[in-house]
User: What shape does this take?
Amino acid sequence: MSSLKHFLLRAVITLLFLAVPILGVWTFVKAEEWGLWFPPTYSTYGPSIDFLFDVIMWMVAVTFVGTELLLVWFFFRYSKKDATRATYTHGNHTLEMVWTAIPALLLIFVAFSQMKAWSTVKINFPEDGPYTVAKPLMEIYASQFDWRVRYPDAQGNFEGADVIEVPYDITVPADTKVVLRLKSRDVLHSFFVPVFRLKQDAVPGMEIPVWFEATRPGDYDLICAELCGWGHYKMAGKIHVLPKDEFASWLAKQRENLYAKD
Amino acid sequence: MSTHAHAPAHEAKPLGIDPPGTTHVSHEHHEFGFLRKYIFSTDHKVIGLQFLFTGLVMLLLGGLMAMAIRWQLAYPWTEMPVLGRLLFPATGGVTTPEGYTMLFTMHGTLMIFFVVIPLLTGTFGNYLIPLMLGAPDMAFPRLNMLGYWFWWPGIFCILLSFGAEGGGPAAGWTAYPPLSTIESAAPGSNWGQNWMLISLTFVGVSSMMGAVNYVTTIVKMRAPGMTFFRMPLSIWSLLVAALLQLFALPVLTAATFMQLFDRLFDAGFFTPTGVIINNVSPEAIGQAAGGHPLLWQHLFWFYAHPAVYILVVPSMGFVSDILAVHGRKPIFGYKPMVYSICGIAGLGFIVWGHHMFMSGMNPSVGLVFMTATIMIALPSAVKVFNWLGTLWGARIQVTTPMLFAVSFVAMFIIGGLSGIWMASTPVDIYIHDTYIIVAHFHYVVFAGSMMAIFAAIYHWFPKMFGRAMNETLGKIHFVGTFIALNGVFYMMHQLGLAGLMRRTADPYAYETYAHLQPMNQFISWCAFALLGWQIFFVLNFFGSMVWGKRVGRNPWNACSLEWEAPSPPGHGNFDKPLAVYHGPYEYGVPDAPKDFVPQTQKAVGFQVHA
Amino acid sequence: MSEALAAYDPAVDAPAHHHPVYDYDSGPPVERGKFAIWLFLATEIMFFSGLIGAYIVLRSAAKSWPDPQERLAVDITAFNTFLLITSSWTMVKAVFAAKAGERGKLLAWLAATIAIGASFVSIQVYEYIQLIHEGAIPKIDIFWSTFYAMTGFHGTHVVVGVIWLSCVWFKALGGGYTVRNNLGVELAGLYWHFVDLVWVLLFTIVYLF
Ligand code: HEM
Ligand SMILES: [Cu+2]
Ligand SMILES: [Cu+2]
Assistant: This one.
C-alpha cells in the first residue's frame, strides 16, 4: 500500500473515532435546546435527583472524553508505518494499582452519595404531614389500560358508598406531602410522573406506598412505564396539582356531588 | 516436555486416570459421507460453522424485526413498506398495537438467545477452544453435536410462536407475569407464549451441553505446557461464560417450567390472589392463585443478569486477542485481565436486583444491589484501561478485524459508563424503562458484542475457510456500520432523558413526547441504512469463500496455537505434535528473529516473558 | 493492500497427510467423564435451588399455608423415602462390585437399585392417582401447584435414573465393564445419589414441615 493511501486510511478512521467524543459531548450540550433534555422538575425531591444525575454526568463525561481521546491518539500515533517493533511490555504493576484504586474510590463515593436521596423517596415516608402511609390521601388503582383514583371517606376507609372514585384524572394539593397507595387490578403497571421524577411499579397483590410533594400547580402527564399489554402505549393519565385551598374546596365539592347523586 | 505415545488409543483411552501430560496418539482414518461430514458432524469445527451460519440467518430475522419496530416509531400507524404486507396482512401493512408488542418481544428474544449467545459461545466457543488449546476436538464430540441439534427444536418453537394463532408472545423478552401467564391479559398470545417458553427450554439444554463440554475441554485437554495462565484471553473468557451458563441457566429453566405450569396446568406460581384481568378473575375460572409476580422477576434476573455478561464476556476475550495480534504487542496486564473477567462474573451473580429497583422490591434491599452494581463497573474499567495500555506503543496494522476490535473498546466505554447512572437508584427512578436503558444495552450488545463478532469473523475467517476476506470491502463495511450504529443508538440517550418510554407503540399520543418524532425518524433512517449496509458484509463473506486470497497456516503472524494447524484444519486439527513454552502474546520481542514468537517456539538466544 | 496477510506457501502451509490424532490430557487427575458429571450435577443443584427457593418464598409470603401432614400421605411417603435411601446403599454395592470386576454381583446390585427405583416411582404414581381422584390438582391452590412441580420434577429425575441404570445393566450384561474400566457405573451412581439426596430434602420441606 502506498504511504499516501495508508495515511488517508489512518486519517479517515481517526476522524471517525474522534467524532465519537466530539459529537457525543456536543449532542449533550445541545440536547436542551433540541427539547431532548429532562422536563422541568416540580417536586421537592426532584432537584436532588437531577443533581445526582449531574454529578455522575460530570464524572462520566470526563472519563468518556479522556479515554476516547487516548484511544484516538493511540490509534493515530501507533498506526504509523514503522519498521521498529512495538514496545515490549506485559504491563505495569503500579499502573494497575492506580487505575484500580482511583475508580474504586470514585465508585464508592458514587454509591454512598445516592443513599440519602433514595431513602427520601422510597424508604422514609412523611410522618408529620396530613397524610401518612397508614392514612394516605388516596388510592391509585391501575388496570388495563386506565388509572383510577379513590379518595377515602371521612373515616379513611377506601370501601363503601362515601368513597370518591375518579378515572384518569388525579387531583392533588400543591405544597403538601401527598402519600398515596398504589395498587393494580390485573397486571404490572408503573406510575411515572416525569416532572416529579417519580416512578413506581404497581404490582397486583401488593399495596405500595408512594409519596411526593408538588411545588407548582398545573396539569402534568402521568405515564404507564411498565409493559401492560397491547394498550400500554395509551395508558395515559393526568395529574392536576391545585393550590392547597383550591384542593380543599375541590374535594368538598366532590363529596357534595356524591351525596347529591344519592 | 516428554510426550510418550501409548499403543493404539482404543485400548488406552477408556482406562482409569492418566497422569497429566499423557498423550494418546491414534491412527484413525475416517472417510465420512456428506451427512456425517457436514450435517451430523461431531467435528467441533463443523459444529462451530453450523452455529455461525444459523446464527447469521437469525441475525437477519431479528434485524428485520428491528426495522419493523423502527418504522412504527418513525411513522406510527402508517403502511410499512416491504415488510408490512408480510407481517400485518390483515391491516394492509399497518402495525397493530398487539403486533408491536410481539415485534419487540421477538426481536429481543431472537437477538439474545438465537444470535449473540450462539454466535459468541456456539460459534467461537466451538471453533476456538480445541484449536487454541491444541486439542483434537471437544471432550465429548457427540454431546457437542447434540448441543447443536437441540438448538433446532428451539428455533422451530420460536418460529412456531411467531406464527401462533392470534399472534406471538407479547410480554417482552423478560416475560413478566401476570401479563405473560394469564391468557386474558394478552388476548391472542396464548400458544405464542407457550412456544416461546418451550423454545427457551431447548435453547437452555443446548447451551448446557455446550457449557459442560467447554469447561471439561478447557480443564482437561490442554496441550503439554499450556498452563491456565498461558491460555489466550479468548479461552479465559469462554471458560467464564460457560461457568456463568452452568450456574445461572438452570434457574431460568426452573422458572420457565413454573411459568409453563401456570399456563398449561393453571398453577399459581406467579398469580396473586384477588386479581381481575379483562373482567375475569382467574380464581373464578379455576386457576390457582396465591403466587407472586416478583418471584418471577427475581428468578428471571438471577439468570438474565449473568446472561447479559454471557453476551459480552467472550467478546472481551476476542477483542483482547485481536488487539494484540494486529497491534503486534503483548496484551497489557494479562493477569489483571483474567482477574477482572472473573470479578465481573462473580459480582454478576449478586447484582440482579438492579433490574428491580422500581418493582416494589424492598427499597432497602435495593441499596445493597446498588452498591454491588456500582462496584461491577470497576473490573469493566480495569479492562478498558488495559486495552488502552495495549494500544499504547503498539504497531497497529490497520486491518478490518483491528478496526472492529478498536471500535468495540470505543463503544464499550459508552455502554459501561451509562450503566453507572442506572445503577444509582435515585437516578434510576427517572430513567428506568426509558430509552436511555435501550441505548445502554445496545451500546454493549450491538456496538460492543456484535462489533466484536464481526472482528472475530474477519480475524478467524482465514482459519475457517483457508481464504481471507477482502480488506477493502471489509473497511467499507466497517466505516458504514460504525457511523450508522452511532446514528441509531447515541441519541437514544437524550430521548430517554426527555422521558421517552421503551416498549411504547405510539409515544406521540402523550403530550410530553409529541416533539420527539423527528429525532425518532432520524434514528429510524440510520437503522435502515445500518441494515442495508450489511450487504457489504454478506457479499464479502460468501464471495471470499470462493474468491478470497488463499492463505496459509498463519496469515496474521499470530502466536496462539490455532495458527499452527493447517487452514482449514483437517480432522483431528493438528498434523504435528505440540508443546507450549510461553504465553500467547509474545509480539515485538526484542532480539527474536521475527516480531512474534509462537507459543510452540522455544526462546533461544532471546528472552520472553514467562 | 494487506501486507499483514502472509501469503500461502505450500512448503509450510500444506497439511501433512497421514498424521496421527494428538490427544493430550491435562489438569487434575480425574477422568473427563467424571469431571463433566460433577459439572452437570452442579447445574442440577441450581435447578432444584430454583424450585426450592420459589417454594420457600411463596410459602413464607403466603397468609396461611395448609398443614402438609393433613393433605399428604406422609407415612407411605416416609416408607418411599426409606426405599430410595436403601437404593443408594445398593448402588454403592454395585459400584464396589464393578471395581472388583465381579460381574454377577454388579448385575445383582444394579438390578436391586433399578427395582427399588421403579417401586419408588410406582408408589409416587399411585399417590398422584389417589390425589387426583380426590381432586387435588395444581390448579386448586398454590400448595398443590408447588407440590406437583417439585415432586414431579424429582420423579422425572428418578425415571431418567432408572432408564440410565437399565442401560448400564445391559452393558454390564454384555461384559462392558472391567476392573480397569467401570467409569460408566460410577457416573450413573453419582447421579443416583444426587437424586436421592434431593428427595430427602424435598421430603423434609414438602411433607414434614
Ligand atoms: C459497567 C457495568 C454495567 C452496569 C453498572 C450496568 C447496569 C445496568 C442497570 C442498573 C440496568 C437496569 C436499568 C433499568 O432497567 O433501570 C441495566 C440494564 C441492562 N444492561 Fe447493564 N450494566 C452494565 C454492563 C452491561 C453489560 C456489559 C451488558 C451486556 C452485554 C449489559 C446489558 C444490559 C441489558 C440487556 C439491560 C436491559 C435489560 C432489560 O430491561 O431488558 N449491561 N444495566
Ligand atoms: Cu402500561
Ligand atoms: Cu443487569
